[in-house]
# Entry
Amino acid sequence: MSFEATLRLMEVLLGLAIAQQSLEHLKPGQLAVNHRVIFAIRLALALSMVLGYSAPYGMYGLWVVALWMLHRFQGPYNGGSDKMTLLILTCLCLVEVAPDQYWQEVALSYLAVQLVLSYFVSGWVKVMNPIWRDGNALRDVFRYSAYPVSEGFRQWADRPGVLWVMGWGVMLLELAFPLALMNPIALKFALLCTAAFHFANACFFGLNRFFWIWLCAYPALIWFQDRIF
Amino acid sequence: MLTSLLRVISLLLPALIPSWRFFKTVAPSPRVEYRVIGGAGARDWQEDRPRPRDISVAALLWRMVWNPDWNEQLFLVSCAERMIEEPSQHSLDEILTRVARLLPVGQGLLQIRLVFISREGDALVKTVEYECEPVPLSRIKGGVA
# Structure
């Protein structure tokens, strides 16, 4: 995939993901009217980015709104998904302001490396922890964490064998993810697996925004693999 | 102004240089509980927005694109954690306002507490880590978050 095609695909995906987030913030009652107006502007900027009307100024606008959101909520509203949104936006803005192709590629490469690290580091800290290795961590997540979206899902905590396999499956996927960079087919297969992992997290734990925003970064990694390896 | 700017920068940096340590450990998990003291709508301590018993596949799929209530609930979890790690009026106001929004207008006092659930051996243990002063519901219901 060419550099330009990668950027355009990412703009479309990111615009759609931000539009989805913004629509959720527009639900009446959750925020004051003046703050919902800002999310309406954010929605408009995101859709204009999808249609290709506003680049790069729409993207700069989205970055400024992201800073305002950090101030408004005194941190991310939706944890890691907000952080990833800001990281992708920042890298795409840096591509726009970079003085030449070399620095543009550095900006996009930074995002690709962070995407790899998001899996590898996450797998590493888990595998170093005994309660992840013996399967109790995932059991605790289902048993008493705030994440399962229904009481019915908590019954998964009563299947320690299944959770042990699931836990090790996640850790091995995350730890082996960097190896997929060696081959373009392996990378696409690995991205399918990680997308399925995010989809499962969205279903079990309601982390829908993580699913969409992590997908937005995938083109950067496909480009990076093609460029470097 | 300068303080706000420095605060935003301190919040921005972890997004640009992330640690990616998702679920390193399973920490004690917060629940927001509330009670209404006095007035017609008085009620004893109860969990704010308890989970449904079950959820249909169709609802799960719909939540992939429209999940504002659950995402607000996750934000309340973040606010509860912040109240313990770095207490602030902002976090308390966010919790009070969002809990009060789902209650009928009344004359009572709203009080919230943060209960943390953890595992000790095989048993689950509930600990009340924070309890706010009762606040008139009418005062909170006057404004949206």
About this structure: Residues 24 and 124 of chain A are 33 Å apart (CA to CA). The two ends of chain A are 13 Å apart (CA to CA). The mean pLDDT of chain A is 96. DSSP finds ten helices and no strands in chain A.
